[in-house]
């Protein structure tokens, strides 16, 4: 049995990731090797849910954030904004990554058809959540420093 | 004082004056005097809770019903979406108020916001400045934000959530801002849907009605909080199509919140309110803070909104809405006393075009067209505002009236009076009293008919001579309506006295909440004028309240001098007494905090002005200083940033540990049984550079015969992150977690070997396998002998599945071929080879 021009199928790169499968060196292929769209498959409930959870957590962190420093005291909303932003987003993003890793491993990852990939959006949402968390940390630190000076 | 503060002060003064002028008619800005007298209750606009009036911007919130009943398929209340046209009319009318075209200068600074409610309430447009320029775009924004789409409308009409949101929104606004709520609803309160077939629907409706009542009337309920915040509420109600018990409670809530007496409610509301009248107690004892308008259909709302004016509408000159088919107003005061006339076509089918038939009938009974005496200044929907021209001031004496022949019923017409100010003349009685304000016209007769009283005790002064001779402040009044029907009370006229300085403010107000200023100073300025008096130097001194010396406040009051441009510098000199020379000057009162923070509430500090009046000795007048200040200390930025740094560092460490823990718990080998299957292979690089793989006995891999006894069980550790093949090569596999500082890298499953192991499927740049993989190849343990390399192929296969033979065959041929393409360049496996590489091919012999 002879195989001619066998092409190793490269698994889909992580959307938005600079990293990806190592293309075989010194080989020619019948189609280009490198970044290409992952296969479009049926939407996975758990993947979608974990993504939505991340977005919701980020929005909650945003909504908890006061608009200015004129509040004058540490509020429950500030604490919630800090905790949800810094930790809630981390947990939600970790969950999303776990689910997407599972999808990749079983070749059932679903990517949406948009200029920005799902994973990049998730990273952006997480970064926003962290920023909001740090902002709330600043508000809390400001009020605490004011109280004890 | 900073430039912005000066500007703010000026704007505030301007707004105060503008508001008061419109509210008080001709009265000079002294205190809040109600606009409309309703059965003994006076409507209070922008009340500050101390009998005065708020002086800041006007915040208008539109609370818009977004329940499904508006566009329901079955008997919708607004099928043609006329409400948006009405809202556009409202916004344009409000926008027109921001233009100052008259000498009185009544322009307001208006902020507009939108909240929609159904099951829940939400802010859709935060309070933003409304002008004539952006009124239309805001109107379009309202339609975009609350579209007339059934799918986007909510099933219930929850007033509790709506009013709570409004109160939250208003409580975050500056205290000095005037707060106006325009509450549009098409129906009745409904906190939860009740099925028509529900046998308990009557009691459930009653429960909901009681729920609303308790929220509105309870301790610190909505009605009380609306009064505390001084919110003027205008409720626009579309007649609901399916009223029940909850409608009565809804009307009761509107009455309690607006404070409107039952007799002043629209007839349908009076009828519908039933036993919920005065539901929070006797309405006669609560202040009148708004009105309830009922619209038969949505198109009529545009007519109703014509009656909404944050300044108040003025004095109605006929019954509103007029009930006769021909509008005939009362005998009017002289046009020289009036500033503007507002016409609103309140009821259908009246329209502004009908004004073409309107006439002014002068005191001699001679008709004149409107445009002979009136000039339109603004027009929105069913509302048109006119001002009087010079000819009217000269010709229209008391007794003229307005008439619309062959008109239709339903007009509302309002008149607003001018703000006047007079001076007693020069330094002695030889000078005549004269008008000093630009707008309107007080003739000699008016000036002779002025009535005076002492400001201190309201005692009457007999004539102008006594008024001139009065050492203290005097107030002046003028009766402009001998009939007493329209203006039964005389209007107040501002007075510049000969022996009393003119002070532009009634009090010095120092209010702020926030971080302490860098200069620790806050100031309040009043204009002071002795140029038209017979006074020379006036001494101003401060009598500070003892409360300012308390620890929490620790502040002092001073005077300071503004610089040449009228601004107050942060480092300007402070004094406790100043000499005010003859002429115009500014009196700037400065509160300076002595510590890093200040919490001061005081209203018993005074600024005393002492001056010698010729022949009367020393006279003193004073102005109180109202202080409501909460300055918080500003922390050191270094301390703040150190705390932030520590908090973020802790958060990063905790996050990394958290992610590590998540990774540990999620990167486990499958719980279901998995087996290994091993085949020893030999690899040879052929002449073309491809890799040839075959079994060690030289046979083809495709000829490999699956033997079930060669299945190798895998023993997993307790943590399920490591395992060992129980026979065969006895290789060990383990799940390698990413490094702590690379928390988002995937965990990989690897097979332990001294040399590089190649895997299929490729995962994490070929570093291993996914821990979740179900079928895989690992080729490992290479041993080079002459021109060939021996290696072990370990297949991971699931315990279940019918096509195990096909799976193993596929892994050993196609999938192994893919792996071999990666191996052929590995020097550790094949040694150094010619760099000329052929096209990757696997040729199986």
Distance between the termini of chain A: 82 Å
The tally of strands of chain A reads 0
Structural class by sheet pairing and helices of chain B: alpha+beta
Mean pLDDT of chain B: 81
Order of helices and strands of chain A: HHH
Number of helices of chain A: 3
* Sheet having the most strands of chain B: 9 strands, antiparallel
What is the general shape of chain B? Answer: elongated
Proportion of residues in β-strands of chain B: 25-35%
Treating each run of at least 4 consecutive H or I residues as one helix, how many helices of chain B?
Answer: 16
Q: Give the overall shape of chain A.
A: elongated
Tell me roughly what share of residues is in helical segments of chain B: 10-25%
What's a quick, concise take on this entry?
The complex is a heterodimer of chains A (149) and B (845). Chain A has 149 residues and is mainly alpha-helical.
Task: Give a structural overview.
Chain A has 149 residues and is mostly helical. Chain A is built from three helices and no strands. Chain A has helices spanning 45-64, 76-105, 118-148. Chain B has 845 residues and is α+β, with helices and mostly antiparallel strands. Chain B contains 16 helices and 42 strands. In chain B, strand 1 and strand 2 (41-42) form a beta hairpin. Chain B starts with a helix and ends in a 15-residue tail after the last helix. The interface between A and B is large, with 49 and 58 residues.
């Amino acid at each position: 049995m002879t195989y001619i021009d066998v092409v190793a199928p490269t698994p889909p790169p992580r959307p938005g990731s600079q990293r990806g499968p190592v293309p075989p060196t010194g080989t020619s292929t019948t189609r280009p090797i490198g970044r290409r769209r992952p296969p479009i498959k049926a939407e996975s409930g758990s993947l979608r849910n974990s993504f939505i959870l991340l977005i919701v957590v980020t929005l909650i962190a945003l909504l908890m954030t006061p608009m200015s420093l004129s509040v004058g005291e540490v509020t429950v909303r500030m604490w919630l904004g800090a905790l949800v932003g810094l930790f809630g987003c981390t947990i939600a993003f970790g969950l999303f990554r776990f689910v997407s890793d599972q999808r990749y491993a079983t070749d059932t990852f679903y990517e949406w058809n948009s200029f920005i990939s799902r994973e990049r959006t998730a990273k952006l949402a997480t970064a926003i959540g962290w920023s909001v968390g740090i902002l709330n940390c600043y508000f809390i630190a400001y009020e605490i420093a004011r109280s004890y000076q | 004082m900073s430039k912005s503060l000066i500007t703010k002060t000026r704007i505030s003064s301007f707004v105060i004056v503008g508001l008061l002028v419109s509210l008080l008619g001709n009265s000079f800005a002294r205190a809040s005097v109600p606009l409309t007298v309703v059965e003994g209750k006076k409507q209070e606009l922008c009340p500050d809770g101390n009998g005065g009036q708020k002086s800041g911007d006007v915040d208008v919130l539109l609370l818009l019903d977004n329940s499904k009943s508006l566009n329901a398929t079955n008997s919708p209340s607004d099928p043609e979406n006329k409400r948006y046209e009405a809202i556009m009319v409202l916004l344009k009318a409000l926008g027109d108020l921001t233009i100052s075209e008259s000498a009185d200068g009544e322009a307001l600074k208006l902020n507009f916001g939108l909240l929609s409610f159904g099951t829940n309430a939400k802010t859709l447009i935060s309070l933003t400045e409304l002008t004539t320029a952006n009124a239309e775009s805001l109107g379009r924004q309202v339609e975009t934000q609350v579209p007339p789409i059934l799918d986007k409308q909510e099933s219930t009409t929850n007033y509790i959530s709506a009013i709570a949101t409004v109160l939250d929104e208003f409580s975050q606004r500056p205290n000095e801002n005037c707060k106006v709520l325009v509450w549009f609803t098409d129906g009745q309160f409904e906190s939860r849907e009740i099925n028509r077939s529900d046998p308990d629907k009557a009691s459930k409706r009653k429960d909901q009605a009681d729920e609303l009542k308790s929220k509105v009337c309870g301790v610190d309920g909505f009605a009380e909080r609306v009064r505390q915040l001084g919110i003027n509420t205008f409720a626009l109600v579309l007649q609901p199509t399916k009223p029940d018990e909850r409608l009565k409670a809804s009307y009761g809530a509107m009455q309690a919140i607006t404070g409107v007496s039952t007799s002043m409610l629209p007839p349908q509301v009076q009828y519908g309110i039933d036993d919920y009248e005065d539901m929070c107690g006797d309405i006669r004892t609560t202040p009148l803070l708004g009105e309830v308008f009922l619209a038969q259909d949505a198109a009529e709302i545009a007519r109703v909104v014509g009656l909404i004016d944050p300044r108040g509408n003025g004095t109605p000159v006929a019954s509103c809405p007029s009930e006769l088919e021909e509008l005939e107003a009362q005998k009017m005061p002289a046009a020289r006393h009036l500033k503007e006339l507002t016409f609103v076509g309140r009821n259908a089918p009246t329209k502004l075009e009908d004004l073409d038939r309107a006439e002014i009938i002068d005191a001699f009974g001679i008709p004149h067209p409107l445009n002979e005496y009136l000039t339109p200044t603004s027009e929105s929907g069913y509302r048109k505002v006119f001002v009087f021209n010079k000819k009217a001031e000269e010709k229209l004496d008391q007794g003229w009236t307005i008439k619309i022949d062959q008109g239709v019923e339903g007009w509302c017409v309002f008149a607003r009076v001018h703000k006047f100010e007079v001076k007693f003349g020069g330094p002695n009685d030889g000078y005549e009293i004269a008008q000093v304000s630009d707008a309107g016209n007080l003739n000699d007769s008016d000036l002779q008919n002025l009535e005076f009283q002492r400001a201190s005790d309201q005692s009457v002064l007999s004539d102008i001579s006594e008024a001139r001779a009065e050492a203290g402040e005097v107030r002046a009044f003028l009766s402009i309506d001998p009939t007493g029907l329209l203006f039964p009370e005389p209007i107040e006229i501002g007075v510049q006295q000969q022996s009393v300085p003119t002070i532009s403010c009634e009090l010095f107000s120092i209010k702020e909440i926030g971080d302490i200023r860098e200069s620790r100073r806050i100031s309040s300025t009043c204009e002071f004028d002795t140029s038209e008096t017979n006074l020379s130097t006036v001494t101003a001194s401060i009598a500070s309240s003892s409360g300012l010396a308390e620890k929490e406040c620790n502040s002092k009051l001073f005077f300071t001098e503004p610089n040449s441009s009228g601004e107050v510098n942060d480092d300007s000199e402070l004094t406790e007494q100043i000499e005010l020379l003859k002429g115009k000057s500014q009196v700037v009162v400065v509160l300076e905090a002595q510590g890093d923070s200040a919490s001061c509430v005081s209203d018993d500090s005074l600024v005393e002005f002492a001056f010698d009046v010729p022949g009367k000795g020393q006279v003193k007048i004073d102005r109180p200083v109202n202080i409501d200040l909460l300055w918080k200390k500003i922390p050191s930025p270094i301390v703040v940033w150190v705390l932030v740094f520590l908090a973020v560092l802790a958060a990063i460490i905790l996050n990394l540990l958290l992610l590590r823990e998540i990774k540990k718990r999620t990167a486990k080998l499958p719980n279901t049984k998995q087996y290994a299957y091993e085949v020893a292979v030999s690899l040879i690089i052929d002449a073309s550079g491809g890799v040839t793989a075959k079994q060690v006995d030289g046979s083809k891999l495709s000829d490999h015969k699956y033997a079930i006894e060669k299945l190798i069980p895998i023993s997993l550790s307790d943590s399920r992150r490591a395992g060992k093949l129980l026979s065969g090569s006895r290789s060990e596999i383990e799940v390698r977690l990413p490094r702590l500082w690379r928390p988002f890298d995937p965990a990989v499953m690897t097979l332990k070997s001294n040399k590089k192991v190649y895997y299929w499927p490729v995962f994490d740049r070929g570093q291993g396998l996914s821990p979740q993989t179900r079928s895989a190849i690992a080729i490992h343990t290479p041993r080079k002998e002459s021109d060939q390399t021996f290696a072990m192929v370990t297949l991971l296969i699931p315990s279940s599945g019918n096509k195990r033979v096909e799976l193993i065959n596929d892994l050993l041929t196609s999938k192994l071929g893919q792996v071999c393409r990666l191996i052929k360049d590995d020097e550790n496996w094949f040694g150094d080879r010619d760099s000329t590489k052929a096209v990757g091919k696997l040729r199986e012999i």
